[in-house]
Amino acid sequence: MLSILEANFRGEKYPIYISDNAIKHLSIHLQSLKNNYLIICDDVFKNKKKHPDDKFTNILKNSRVLYYKAGIKNKTSKYADKIIQFFYKNNISRDCAIISIGGGVVGDIVAFAASIYHRGLKLIHVPTSMTSMIDSSIGGKTGFNRYDVVNLCGTYFHPKSSFIDTRFLKTLSQRDFSSGLAEIIKKAIIFDEELFDYLIKNKDDILKLTPKIIYETIVKSVKIKLLITSSDEKESNQRLLLNYGHTFGQALEGYFGINQKFLTHGEAVSLGIIAASKLVDKKYKLNTLNTNKNLLKNFKLPTNFSDLKIKNKININNLIKNLNNDKKRTIHGIRFIVSKKKGTGQIIYEKNKDLIKQSFKSILS
Ligand SMILES: NC(=O)c1ccc[n+]([C@@H]2O[C@H](COP(=O)([O-])OP(=O)(O)OC[C@H]3O[C@@H](n4cnc5c(N)ncnc54)[C@H](O)[C@@H]3O)[C@@H](O)[C@H]2O)c1
Prior knowledge:
This protein is an alpha/beta fold. The protein is built from 15 helices and 12 strands. The chain folds into 2 domains: 2-172, Rossmann fold; 178-365, Dehydroquinate synthase-like, alpha domain (Up-down Bundle), CATH 1.20.1090.10.
């Protein structure tokens, strides 16, 4: 199984290899670079048991590697500087390739460092988590957190190629896997009715990581992200639709802070989708909530706070305050992305505080 998709960002084209054996293609590519590359790798791969095959083990053994301790608390300027120091100590020139191997945290920060060193190096992404495979490694956003604000600093910078090897998913925790799936479900609801039906039909095989199904799921999802982000790299209307579930979701994330121990980004999106479904159902007298809820539940995602390991009582007024502080607030009301019908999305502005409160209440038992 192999797909080589072409990313095209304003004429800047590069290949994305998706395969259950993409490491083979990465290895061939690295040989052609004749050691003129550096690897920054998530430190989970210090553990050989997490390697998809011996080829991967050999790549790490025979290369100059900086291991990076992933986790949101390390997505900082301090770590960006450590990566820059690694570049500097290796005395690299502008044509040196930088290989980022890991989840979204490693991918975002390595891409940031690569984008500014010598005003831009050759970047290659090897995403290893679900979120990084289908989302963060595509679209060119790089960054790190600062002052407890997620991705406060960053650049737009695309890789020269990406290698997605689906076997990496075998060692990912259930929680991180489901969090990545939330992004796929979001795209299905808002853009692609066929993907929506595909997810329902193949839910068991997706959760079991059946190679053919997981490969197809990732190919479909990467294609959507490419379609949306290639049409307009910056925040166009189409790209804004990718924020489905995020307006409510980010208010929740703001509530729990930058530490994702209690609530991961994917879980916040899942709860955000429920609240957005409630909003659209109430406003337009529809019935989308149950279908969306079932889809999320199938993939072990939370649809209510009671599904999370959070003991504290949630203060709804604080959640609303977070919405009001958001950059999505305009004179027409707060901007929400909603889906009136599966496979479609639109932007609406809502001023009705009561409706917004009821939407939040739908996820608080
Ligand atoms: N650039 C973008 O457009 C974009 C989009 C979405 C998310 N993001 C960013 O992505 C980050 C979240 O990504 P994430 O969920 O991958 O988080 P992450 O990088 O923290 O990875 C989650 C956990 O999985 C581990 N891991 C990664 N691959 C593994 C594997 N194959 N086997 C076992 N463990 C593995 C990591 O060490 C980490 O503990 C956030 O920082 C977010 O801001 C960026």
